[in-house]
Write a structure and sequence with these properties.
The protein has about 550 residues and is α/β, with parallel strands linked by helices. It contains 15 helices and 22 strands.
């Protein structure tokens, strides 16, 4: 059983907090306030604010599904990060660990509080190693705090849910999961597991998706014991009344449209930046920014500045050599960034067919969000090389990667879902979303090859027939001899292709045989990729719709 009291500094445990006569009052309505030496003449700001921001917590409780008693509101997330060090770490003695690169305020707060801070390097794709994090945390006297930012700033990628669980279970201190950018991610918040892990603090903010950066409002969700410690140590009136009132006014509006627009802009920026010759890599992002590795980052940032545009130069920071970070702006602002970068670098030469007036770019993004899953798919049918797959199921990721690599398309898939139930909902919804994106990218199907056909692989052979006719017919003749394969039920492969067929609105016939189940699955996905690549190929010299009916729908 986790006992937070064993981690609290002795002087904090013995601290008698500042108290006000008003602390225990539910409402001050009708009360004559002569207890706090305030100016009695009402001007809207003459009274001290509610020290516990009760009304705002109730609002947040309804939105996030966490009791108000388990919510703390700080003067920005910076205050909450600082409180973590002040409550749990003895100056000059204790340690904290975090990801490298990550949000710089973790290390700054550690230094301010005279606490040793160790950044644990991420891998080349900015993936986190649970083993390395836990090893660093257990070194010496052991760390009291661990900071994990997901989606991570400045890299933009999310830490898989299973890894977060492993850290929460394996770490004997306080795990702080910073979800400042969670509203832009297809992954679900770790708040759903808060009851399971009493050593976890989840940080969120009203600065990003909610658009309240100027109000300085950070939010912590944790056990009542940890929240009581925050309330005990914080300054009495840490959040101004004006910020709370403005937040109450703003928080009632629907921000999903703005979030959707920013996510759409993010995907547009990914494709556009990736086409520039000096752009070496655009890293996958679940946040409202992109980390981009470029040639001459100093020169690019200076050129932006000359045109009154500020982007962040990360090339001299630990872990992000040669990189810049670009926040997602409005369409007009992003166009300006692309125009400046385009003039600075120029376009890449491409193997793909140039899009003319009658042959538009075949790119699309599709999203699907339900109570069970959150899926985002973006693809480019005419360019290869940009592939990022993250569904939380390793073998499924490997199979989806085969589709991208062997069909010659660019594909990004991020998916999160109720894998604690099983993989059914996530696999099905990935298929539906992928099919939707393909259908959108194909448009009216002018110049389409339309048909695709087969593939031998080691002990297996697979044949996939596909016709983008607009009609739906599905056949499956593949017999697996194992129930599970790489953490996924083999019956889900049929269900994936059936759902994909229905979503793409095509005829899809799949037949395969072989002895090794791994090879059998892989041969099916590779054969589908080859057939798909043939079928979506576009004829440069023929822009007609490939049907005697005059249409494919």
């Amino acid at each position: 059983m986790f006992d937070v009291s064993g981690l609290v500094r002795k002087n904090i445990a013995a601290l008698e907090p500042y108290s006000s006569l008003r602390d225990g009052l539910e409402t001050l309505q009708g009360t004559v306030l002569l207890d706090a030496n305030e100016n009695p003449f009402d001007n809207g700001s003459n009274r001290y604010p509610d020290p516990f921001q009760r009304r705002l917590k109730e609002k947040l409780s309804g939105i996030r599904g966490v009791p108000a008693s388990r919510i703390f509101i700080g003067n920005g997330s910076d205050e909450i990060i600082d409180l973590c060090f002040r409550i749990f770490c003895e100056p000059g003695q204790d340690r904290a660990v975090g990801m490298l690169p990550s949000f710089s305020m973790y290390k700054v707060s550690a230094q301010v509080n005279d606490v040793e801070y160790e950044g644990v390097p991420l891998d080349g794709d900015f993936g986190l190693s649970v083993e390395a994090m836990l090893k660093a945390a257990s070194a010496g006297r052991g760390a009291k705090l661990m900071f994990v930012c997901s989606p991570n700033n400045p890299t933009g990628n999310s830490v898989p849910e299973e890894q977060l669980k492993m850290l929460a279970e394996g770490f004997r201190g306080i795990l702080v999961i910073d979800e400042a950018y969670i509203d832009f991610s297809s992954r679900k918040s770790f708040l759903q597991y808060l009851d399971m892990y009493p050593n976890v603090i989840v940080l969120q903010t009203l600065s990003k998706a909610w658009g309240m950066a100027g109000l300085r409002l950070g939010v912590a969700f944790a056990s009542e014991e940890i929240i009581s410690l925050f309330n005990k140590v914080k300054h009495p009136y840490n959040v101004p009344s004006a910020s709370v009132e403005e937040a109450l006014r703003f928080i009632g509006r629907d921000v999903n449209k703005e979030i959707g627009l920013m996510v759409s802009e993010r995907e547009r920026m990914v494709s556009a930046l990736d086409s520039l010759s000096g752009v070496l890599r655009v890293y996958p992002s679940d946040a409202d920014f992109l980390l981009v590795r470029v040639e001459d980052p100093d020169g690019l940032c200076n050129e932006m500045l000359r045109n009154n545009v500020l982007i962040q130069n990360r090339s001299h920071s630990s872990g992000t050599p040669g990189c810049v970070r670009i926040s997602i702006g409005t369409e007009e602002q992003d166009d300006l960034v692309l125009d400046i970068a385009g003039r600075f670098y120029g376009e890449k030469s491409s193997r793909s067919m140039p899009a003319g007036k009658n042959q538009p770019l075949r790119q699309a993004t599709a999203c699907r969000k339900t109570s069970e899953t959150g899926i985002r798919v973006s693809l480019d049918l005419d360019n290869s090389g940009v592939t990022y797959i993250n569904t939380g199921i390793g073998f499924f990721d490997h199979m989806l990667d085969q589709i991208a690599r062997h069909s010659g398309i660019s594909l990004r898939i991020t998916a999160a879902g109720d894998l604690y139930v099983d993989e059914h909902h996530l696999v099905e919804d990935v298929a539906i979303t992928l099919g939707t994106a393909i259908r959108k990218a194909l448009g009216d199907k002018r110049g389409l090859a339309r048909y695709g056909f087969a593939l031998p692989m080691d002990d297996c052979r697979a044949m996939v027939l596909i016709d983008f006719s607009g009609r739906i017919d599905f056949e499956w003749k593949v017999d697996f001899t194992r129930e599970m394969l790489g953490g996924i039920h083999t019956e889900m492969f049929r269900h994936f292709f059936k759902s994909l067929c229905e979503s793409m609105q095509c005829n899809l016939h799949v037949e395969a045989s072989g002895d090794n189940n791994h090879h059998l699955a892989e041969s099916v996905f590779k054969a589908f990729a080859r057939a798909f690549g043939q079928a979506v190929r576009r004829n440069v010299n023929d822009n007609a719709i490939p049907s005697s009916k005059g249409g494919l729908d």
